[in-house]
Write a structure and sequence with these properties.
Number of domains: 2
Largest sheet: none
Helix content: 55-70%
Distance between the termini: 27 Å
Structural class: mainly alpha
Shape: elongated
Order of helices and strands: HHHHHHHHHHHHHHH
Radius of gyration: 25 Å
């Protein structure tokens, strides 16, 4: 298979000549094919798209990200959305668009494990590129990334790992979906439902209870968002909602006076505003976002587990592709 130039050549070579090609040679063949597609079929477009998405999100929520509780929760939710969006678009069509070719090559001796491994390596490279681009754009737009490292000793490296694992886990979920569906049209139909499930059940932006809350453990978004909040010292940040609400009500008069405005001016005059905001934050801490190495490591391990699980399910789906009569 190493010197074949077209799929016509594959069909013309005796099966015995292909069947005993090892997994590693096939891995190299398919990996080379994927990188050629990156260059010549414009798969590289996912990289500038990652920059555009990151720029838009930073423009909207970047000012308050990692600066206060509300901004951090909203910003990390948006950051998780970036990772999931990038991962989904990387691989949602890559298998289903060449399903007939895979079926034909599998009958000629293709090892599905080599094919999936090649996709895993290639997609990991794409996700790493998107991760670097996302971080660079965020830094360029003055996002206040945390300075304290919880795991590796380098806070930025911690953040890079979380962005990469979240993106890669979403990528592998999309790859799995692409292995199960029959066409690119079906893949693009399924993708919005996967995206909505990830966002609704992220466990951060929407308040969920009971069985709905348990479903958050099944999402990539939940573990990415939790890691981001833990790394961003969420529970140590000030909460500004109360102060903003008071500011909106400061013109309210009671018996000819403006007590809220007077209280705010007194607090500011005594230099107590920052202390009040921190105290508000203390009363609204969330144990899920504890800033500890153990919490971040658990999130990373969950993301790695899902990466391997989705890859295994994609492998299982394609192993029986010969029985597929669709």
């Amino acid at each position: 298979m190493g010197n074949l130039k077209s799929f016509e050549d594959i069909r013309n070579v005796p099966k015995e000549e292909l069947r005993y090609k090892g997994r590693l040679p096939q891995l190299g063949i398919y990996l080379g094919k994927m990188f050629r597609m990156f260059v010549f079929q414009s798969d590289w477009k996912v990289l500038p798209m990652a920059a555009v998405i990151a720029g838009l999100v930073c423009y909207v929520v970047g000012d308050n990200l990692f600066r206060n509780m509300e901004g951090t929760l909203l910003g990390t939710f948006a950051l998780s959305c970036i990772c999931i969006w990038n991962g989904f678009f990387n691989s949602i069509q890559v298998i289903c668009r060449e399903r007939p070719i895979i079926k034909r090559e599998h009958r000629s001796g293709l090892h599905i494990s080599s094919y999936i491994a090649a996709h895993m390596i290639y997609q990991a490279v794409l996700c790493l590129g998107q991760t670097i681009i996302t971080i660079v754009v965020c830094v360029g737009m003055h996002v206040a990334f945390p300075k304290v490292s919880l795991v590796t000793g380098n806070a930025m490296l911690d953040m890079v790992i979380t962005v990469f694992l979240t993106t890669y886990a979403a990528d592998m979920m999309s790859l799995m979906a692409s292995a199960f569906v029959r066409s690119t049209t079906m893949a693009m139909t399924v993708m919005p439902f996967l995206m909505i499930f990830q966002l609704v059940f992220s466990g951060g932006f929407f308040q969920l209870q009971g069985n709905a809350e348990k479903l958050t453990n099944l999402t990539v978004a939940k573990w990415g968002l939790t890691a981001f909040c833990a790394q961003g010292m969420y529970n140590d940040l000030p909460m500004v909602s109360l102060w903003k609400t008071m500011d909106k009500m400061k013109e309210v008069e009671v018996e000819g006076q403006q007590p809220i405005k007077m209280a705010m001016e007194l607090i500011e005059a005594q230099g107590g505003k920052d202390e009040l905001l921190l105290r508000c934050g203390q009363y609204n801490q969330n144990p899920k976002y504890e800033s500890s190495a153990e919490n971040v490591e658990v999130c990373w391990m969950r993301l790695i587990f899902y990466i391997l699980l989705y890859a295994f399910l994609a492998l299982g789906a394609l192993e029986y592709i010969d029985r597929d009569k669709r």
